[in-house]
Write a structure and sequence with these properties.
Layout (H helix, E strand, L loop, with lengths): L1 H26 L1 E5 L3 E3 L1 H6 L2 E6 L3 E5 L2 E2 L5 E4 L4 E4 L5 E3 L4 E4 L4 E4 L7 E5 L2 E3 L2 E3 L17 E3 L6 E3 L59 E12 L2 E3 L19 E11 L2 E3 L16 E9 L7 E2 L16 E5 L9 E4 L2 E4 L9 E4 L4 E4 L4 E6 L1 E3 L4 E4 L5 E6 L9 E4 L6 E5 L5
Parallel strand pairs: 1-3, 2-4, 3-6, 4-7, 5-8, 6-9, 7-10, 8-11, 9-12, 10-13, 11-16, 12-16, 13-17, 16-18, 17-19, 18-20, 19-21, 20-22, 23-25, 24-26, 25-28, 26-29, 27-30, 29-31, 30-32
Antiparallel strand pairs: 14-15, 22-23
């Protein structure tokens, strides 16, 4: 009898242990989201989430840090996740994000918070696309001028910061907006920072019967580990409507990226959009990319192009692309510019090397003194237009200074200019 009771008790204890293990396994769950959801620590703990899958066209509002303990948030193929207004997806230090092929992350129109994501590894095989999600273009019904961002709050406001002028003018951001033959003068008020872009793109000007295109939205990505871009990250402006005389193109938006390692074969864009019928083109936006190590990603695929004009409307100008091989700007490193750069007062343009791609557009609107130097400075085939009055301009390279085919124009006064290369200027 004793032996029977001992065996029974032993089996009972084993059963309890087995049930405990089973219960523990059930608690670890992949949480599937198919409707609009607020995601915070309470949601994660209440549903025992160790992974999250987006399996619907949904809005997700992220509150605080979402720590999955080494899990992954996945936006599944065929679905679009829209970030809730001003929310930020901040994952735990060992958590990853995957955007599958055919999946999209975006944000709402005129949401100044944009797409803001921080994770360990981020893999974008699909798209993070906030094109036409910036400030709204001018409208016909109701009759309203285009909007641009308030530079204090970031909120879109009528007739502010780079807005496309009425009569189908192009909007500005990193590049200027085009003019029309109506006539509407170019929108020359650019705004924001090349090194730290945060603002939405401004909207294009309306026509008599057509809306202007919206500006591009905002993307802010921080991957402490590896950022793999196989698809695209896009913050392009929107085209104007084609009715009547047409509408002006919206300006490109903002993209800020910081990655431990940048790899993949995709693209990053914040371009202005075309004017339509007689509309002018929008100016390019602003992109800043900081990385610690570079894998296979081609830096030439980071572009902020200008929108073209139509029917006599002029094109906008290129935006800015500030690309540095540092995760924290320590004043050194190798600087690459693919589309354009505006040199500003207080900017640091003394680097290890500076490479500016052919056809890039350089401007300087505010500094009184400007030094551009490095061990190697390459700026072949670029246009450099300086409206600022300079007491000093120095462009110098320890190695030969390469400026073949470049054009330099000064509309402001200049007291002292010096171009030097260690073995000459080519």
């Amino acid at each position: 009898m004793r032996r029977f009771l001992s065996r029974s008790l032993f089996a009972f204890v084993l059963g309890l242990l087995f049930l405990g293990i089973q219960t523990s396994e059930v608690q670890a769950a992949t949480c599937v989201i198919t409707s609009n959801t607020v995601i915070d620590s309470s949601y994660v703990s209440g549903n025992s989430c160790t992974a999250i899958e987006i399996q619907g066209n949904v809005s997700t509002t992220w509150v605080g840090t979402t720590d999955l303990g080494g899990g992954t948030v996945t936006v599944k193929t065929g679905f679009t996740m829209t970030m809730g207004a001003s929310s930020q997806m901040i994952l735990g230090s060992t958590d990853d994000l995957v955007v599958e092929s055919g999946a999209i992350i975006t944000h709402g129109v005129a949401d100044a918070g944009g797409v803001y994501i921080q994770a360990r590894n981020i893999t974008v095989t699909g798209n993070i696309d906030v094109s036409s999600k910036g400030c709204t273009g001018g409208t016909v019904s109701p009759l309203a001028t285009a909007h641009g961002p308030n530079l204090t709050t970031g909120a879109c406001t009528a007739s502010t910061s780079g807005f496309g002028k009425n009569n189908f003018g192009g909007a500005a951001h990193g590049g200027i907006g085009g003019a029309t033959t109506y006539p509407t003068t170019a929108q020359t008020t650019t705004y924001g920072s090349s090194a730290l872009p945060t603002f939405l793109g401004a909207g294009g000007g309306r026509g008599n019967e057509a809306y202007g295109g919206n500006g591009g939205g905002r993307v802010h990505l921080v991957a402490t580990g590896v950022l793999t871009i196989g698809g695209s990250i896009r913050a392009n402006g929107g085209a104007g409507q084609s009715s009547g005389n047409g509408g002006g193109g919206g300006a490109g938006g903002s993209v800020y990226i910081k990655a431990g390692t940048l790899t993949g074969s995709g693209s990053i864009m914040a371009s202005g959009r075309n004017g339509v019928t007689q509309g002018a083109g929008g100016g390019g936006g602003r992109i800043a990319v900081y990385y610690g190590a570079l894998g296979s990603f081609p830096l030439g695929n980071i572009l902020s192009a200008a929108g073209s004009g139509a029917g006599g409307g002029s094109a906008g100008t290129k935006g800015t692309t500030f690309i540095l091989d540092r995760t924290t700007d320590d004043g050194a490193g190798n600087l690459r510019v693919t589309s354009g750069l505006d040199f500003v007062a207080g900017g640091d343009y003394i680097r290890d090397t500076i490479t500016i791609d052919s056809q890039a557009a350089l401007t300087c609107g505010s500094p009184t003194s400007l030094d551009i130097s490095g061990t190697a400075v390459v700026m072949n085939g670029v246009s450099f237009s300086c409206a600022s009055s300079l007491t000093r301009l120095m462009v110098s390279s320890t190695q030969p200074l390469q400026m073949s085919g470049s054009t330099i124009s000064f509309t402001g006064a200049i007291s002292n200019a010096l171009f030097t290369g260690g073995e000459g200027i080519y």
